[in-house]
Amino acid sequence: MPHSNQITREKLYGEANVASIMETLEPAQITIDEFLNNVGWKEILNGTEYRHEISGNSMKEISYRMGAKVILKESVLIDPALVNLKIMADVLKGSETFIDWRDMARMVPMDVPKIEIPITDRTDFRFDPAGQETRAPKMGGQIPTASLDATGESGLFRGEITIPRSWLRDANYPALEDTLESAGEAVAVTVEKDVNDFYINNLTQTDTRANLDGTPAIATSAMFTVIDDRIPTNKFIPNLALMHPTDAAHMRIDQSTSNFPWLNKLYNDKIDNTGPGKLKIDGTRGNVEVLILDADAATSATVIVVNKQKCVAVGLRQDLEIEDFIDIREGVEGAVMSMQWVKALQRDLAGFKITAFRTA
Fold it and tell me: Do 188 and 99 meet the contact criterion of CB atoms below 8 Å apart?
C-alpha cells in the first residue's frame, strides 16, 4: 500500500539521505538503528530549531553510551532525514516493548491485497502400507483454504502523534521521547487486543474453569485438561496460551498453595531472550508458552489455549510506518502512523476458550 515518505524498521539501516552518517558509524561497527536509539533529542534540537550538527563531543558521549569499540569524534550534519528517522526509531522502540503480538498466531506477510492460505492437518494425508508393486496412496488432495483479504483499507489503522510546541521551546525533550515511545506502545497493544478479541469471538470450543478442573479446584489442572485432552482429542497439539495478568497471577498462587507437588514440575518460570517473566506449561503434551498480555489487550477471567500455527492467521499487509512527516519544530502534530493487518480463522478445533477462570 504505497504512501509517501514511509519509514519502517528496515529503512533505518539503509536510508540514502543518511549515508554520510553510516560512513561515520561503520568504523565503530555501529548500525544506524543503534545510533538512533542512543542519540538524544537535545543533540538534534536547540529549542524549536534544528542544530546544524551533532558535535564531535556529543558523538563521543554517544559512543560511550553505546559501549562502542571505537570512540566517535567526528561531527555529523543534521538534516530532515535524520530527524524523521529518529522519530520512527522512538516509535518503534515503544512498539517493540509489546512485541508479543507477533507470537500470538500464524503470521503471514502479504505482498498482495488478498491471498488464500492452505489449511492442513495430518488427517488430510494418508501414509498406508504399500509395497513396490502397489500404487502409493495419494497424500493431500482437496486442501481447504482461508482467505486473508486486505483489499482497499480493510484492516487499516491510523493515528496522529501530537507534540506541543511548548515542549520544544522549553527543551522538554524527555516528554517528546516519552510521547513517541508511548505512541508505539499504543499501536502494539492495539494489535494484541485485536488478535486476542478475534480468538474470543471466533472459538466455539469453550467451557468454564469449574467444569474443566474437577475437584479440588486447581486453575493449573483446568489448563492441563485443555492442553492434554480437549485440543489433542481434535488431533492438534497446543503450544500457546494467552492470559490476562491477573489470571496468570491467580494461577501461580492457586498452583503454589495446592497439595499437588507434581504440578510444580509441570508449571515453570521461563527466562528467555525476549525478557523475564514469561511462563511455560509442560503438560504431558509439553511446551505450551504462556503469553501474559497487556491488561488493556486481554479479557479478564478468559484464557485462550491454541495451536498458533493452525488456529488463526494474521496477515500483515503493512507493518508500522510513519505515513506522513510534519516538521516537528512546528509542534502541534508530529507524524501520522499507520499499520494494516487482517485475520482469518483456520481450524477452530485447534483452539479452546476457558471462561470464568477465577473463582474469586
Answer: yes
Q: Are residues 349 and 240 in the same domain?
A: yes
Enclosing domain of residue 251:
156-355
Under DSSP, is residue 90 helix (H, G, I), strand (E, B) or coil?
A: helix
Q: Measured between alpha carbons, how far apart are the two ends of the chain, in Å? A: 48
DSSP state of 228: I
143-167 pLDDT tens trace = 788 999 999 999 999 998 888 888 8
- Split into its structural domains, the chain has a count of 2
How many Cβ atoms sit within 10 Å of the Cβ of residue 15?
A: 18
Measured distance CA(129)–CA(203) in Å, rounded: 37
**pLDDT over 90 at 308, yes or no:** yes
Mean pLDDT of 262-275: 47
State how far the alpha carbon of 357 is from the alpha carbons of 102, 198, 222, 242, 284, in Å. Answer: 25, 19, 9, 12, 21
**79 falls within a domain:** yes
Q: Does the model's pTM come out above 0.70?
A: yes
pLDDT of residue 186: 94
User: Residue 231 and residue 273: Cα distance in Å, rounded?
Assistant: 29
Distance of alpha carbon 328 from alpha carbon 162, whole angstroms: 10
